[in-house]
Every structure is written in C-alpha cells, then in structure tokens.
Design brief:
Layout: H1 4-15, E1 20-22, E2 36-49, E3 52-66, H2 71-78, E4 83-91, E5 94-102
Parallel strand pairs: 1-2
Antiparallel strand pairs: 2-3, 3-5, 4-5
Length: 103
C-alpha cells in the first residue's frame, strides 16, 4: 500500500483536477460546480502474528460530490483495488457518492 500522498495523486488523476481535499478544515472554501473529492481516514486494520502487529492498512472514506452524476468518475473509483461503494445521498442539491477504500 502507498502513502496518503500517493492516494491524493491517484484521486486527482481520476478527477482530472486538483479539486481533491484531504480532511479539509471547516473554513475551506470549496467550489462544487464541476465535482470534487473529499476524503479522510475512517478506520484501520492491524494484522497480528505471534501476538505482534505486522501489518497496518488504513481505510479512507472517499466522497465524490457533484451537482451532476459522472459515470466515468464513479467507475474509476469503483475500479480501484480494495474499494467498495458504501452509499449515496443528496444534500444542498449535490449528489454524494460515498466509497470505502483500503490504501
């Protein structure tokens, strides 16, 4: 698994823009007009051998937020290894597609 900055680069490549935010601060101004990705760590998995941790994998919640559905972005996110689609909801006339991604 790569670093968080590796994940940032992958998500920017999928979106085709730098409108990818990792745990944005509450005072961050975000323009949702062409779609954005907001992600944060939400869980970690530790595997043990002989009672000692030997592997840690972080899980991120990845939200694709857009006024319109973009099937290309959704498919690209679903094609990421260890990624599952979690849920969909709308808020403030924006579509929110939520994914869980181990990275």
């Amino acid at each position: 698994m790569g670093s968080r900055l590796d994940l940032q680069a992958i998500l920017e490549g999928i979106l085709g823009t730098r409108k990818v935010y990792f745990q944005p601060k509450t005072n961050t101004t975000i323009d949702y007009s062409s779609g954005v990705i907001i992600y944060h760590r939400d869980w970690a998995m530790t595997q043990f051998a002989t009672n000692r941790p030997y592997r840690h994998v972080l899980r991120y919640q990845v939200d694709y937020i857009s006024p319109k559905q973009n099937e290309t972005v959704l498919k690209a996110l679903l094609d990421l290894p260890m990624c599952i689609y979690d849920r969909f909801h709308t808020a403030d006339d924006l579509n929110h597609d939520v994914f869980k991604l181990f990275f």
